[in-house]
Design goal:
This protein has 441 residues and is of the alpha/beta class. It has helices spanning 25-28, 43-46, 106-119, 139-155, 173-182, 194-200, 210-223, 241-251, 268-290, 300-309, 390-397, 405-427, 431-438, and strands spanning 4-5, 19-21, 57-59, 65-66, 79-83, 125-131, 159-166, 185-189, 228-233, 255-260, 296-297, 323-326, 331-333, 349-350, 354-355. 35% of the residues lie in helices and 14% in strands. Bound molecules: iron/sulfur cluster (SF4) (2 copies).
Length: 441
């Protein structure tokens, strides 16, 4: 009994599931037909074995958070991604989520917070990033969850911080007021010019989403000027990266990330086009620095910092180490890219069942860099590249520490442009550059 604890009773969400899976998405990750009913059950599932055995459905009302389902060895979990829903109002062409229109039950959300406070051990500070689907679809629940979490964390002598990865289309004045009140951080996923955004990120109804995003951006930047515009660049849109960069700058973004996606779709020609575009961005960054303005561009900044540091970080990310994803059922995964049916073997456990230290051991390593199969010692990116996204590597090469050739080539584009920006501004003893990167002045 000492191992069990339930957060205060809460009101069920509008799309609550009567039963939840014990075994994760491979066994019961929701209705595989995407019918949208959120039934989560079915004849074959009802016929599962008796309770307590693999494949069993436990009625939601009888589930209890298991406080022993936390790491017993290795790194304590201090950061979680939290899938509040798998539903999204967009249908991005490259999305890796398997949608079936289910929400996280409110009780699971509250239990997840309590679980994190225990899984973090002696750490004094923990972080939660709301994800989805589109997390703002669950704004009403977020409004209840955040105050609860702040109170409960204080009772544990901890502080808890919240962030969100949102597509920006549902940002209203009420949302921004809530963000301000509770100090939430966030990333906005936005692909580029209206044309690119509409092409890559249509709504469920097939309309473009750019007009919704353009309406939200001024509200977002008025709240946090440094919010990052994160764009996923696919090979087909490589030639419009610079135009998108200008669009972001015109909107007022000063932190911009163009992250290549779908590495297997790239080839030498599209990579060359991307490099040409990224060089133009590098030249703009140089010009803005000459005028005393700092624009943070992912890839350029990382290269320069690594070049000055002369060593790479040990980890690409915290996936499966200090960070995990809690999915809508309370199942634990290395991160938000790792809860697909075909990756079921990567499931770490459930907040209602167990935390399997062995399942994450391949990720909970002291140094990812030394495990990479690439010959990084001769690569111009060696001081900042930590081997890319392990989940992406797994999808593209079948191994978390083996990168796709195109992924390495695209990272080297960042290195070459970053070196050009560094050398140009350093040679000029540009004061804005030296203050930003060498902490001079
Ligand atoms: S780009 Fe590839 S070869 Fe270069 S440092 Fe990164 S993983 Fe190693
Ligand atoms: S595995 Fe990839 S997607 Fe997951 S946290 Fe790491 S970098 Fe991000």
């Amino acid at each position: 009994m000492a191992q069990e604890l339930m957060a205060p009773p809460v009101t069920r969400g509008p799309v609550g599931l009567p039963v939840l899976s014990v075994l994760g998405t491979s066994e019961g990750g929701g209705c595989g037909t995407s019918c949208g009913s959120g039934c989560g059950s079915g004849a074959s599932r009802k016929a599962a074995a008796a309770e307590g055995e693999p494949g069993v459905q436990i009625p939601f009302a009888r589930r209890r958070l298991k406080l022993s389902a936390v790491p017993t060895s290795g790194t304590a979990v201090t950061n979680i991604d939290m899938d509040l829903t798998v539903e999204c109002n967009l249908r991005c062409t490259y999305c890796f989520k398997e949608k079936w229109n289910e929400h996280m039950e409110e009780q699971v959300a509250f239990d997840t917070i309590v679980w994190l406070l225990h899984a973090s051990g002696s750490a004094r500070s923990v972080n939660v990033n709301f994800m989805g689907g589109e997390p703002l679809i669950r704004f009403r629940m977020i409004q209840k969850l955040v105050p609860f979490a702040k109170r409960r964390a204080a009772e544990h002598g901890k502080s808890i911080h919240f962030g969100m990865t949102t597509n920006g289309t549902l940002v209203t004045d009420e949302v921004v007021a809530f963000w301000k009140k509770w100090g939430l951080g966030f990333h906005t996923s936005i692909d580029g010019t209206p044309e690119i955004q509409d092409q890559n990120r249509p709504t469920t109804g097939g309309r473009g989403s750019s007009r919704l995003v353009a309406k939200a951006v001024p509200k977002i930047l008025a709240y946090r000027q440094g919010t990052t515009a994160r764009s996923t660049v696919v090979a087909a849109s490589a030639g419009s990266v610079y135009e998108s960069y200008r669009y972001f700058r015109d909107l007022g973004y000063t932190s911009i990330a163009f992250v290549p996606g779908g590495n297997t779709e790239w080839n030498d020609d599209s990579i060359a086009i991307y490099e040409g575009q990224f060089r133009r961005i590098g030249d703009d960054v140089i010009e803005e620095m000459r005028q005393g303005r700092v624009v943070n561009v992912k890839g350029i900044d990382e290269f320069i910092e690594g070049h000055i540091r002369q060593s790479r970080h040990k980890h690409a990310c915290g996936a499966g180490r200090g960070m995990v994803l809690i999915d809508i059922h309370g199942d634990i995964w290395p991160c938000h890219r790792w809860n697909k049916e075909k990756e079921a073997s990567w499931r770490i456990g459930s907040i209602y069942e167990q935390f399997d230290d062995a399942a994450r051991s391949i990720l909970d390593q002291p140094d990812h860099g030394v495990l990479l199969e690439q010959n990084c010692a001769i690569c111009p990116a060696q001081n900042f590249c930590t081997g890319g996204c392990p989940a992406e590597n797994l999808e593209e090469t079948g191994a978390v520490y083996r990168r796709h050739r195109n992924a390495c080539e695209l990272t080297r584009v960042w290195a070459r442009v970053g070196l050009h920006v560094h050398d140009t501004l350093k040679a000029e003893s540009n004061p804005t550059f030296l203050t930003r990167f060498y902490k001079a002045g």
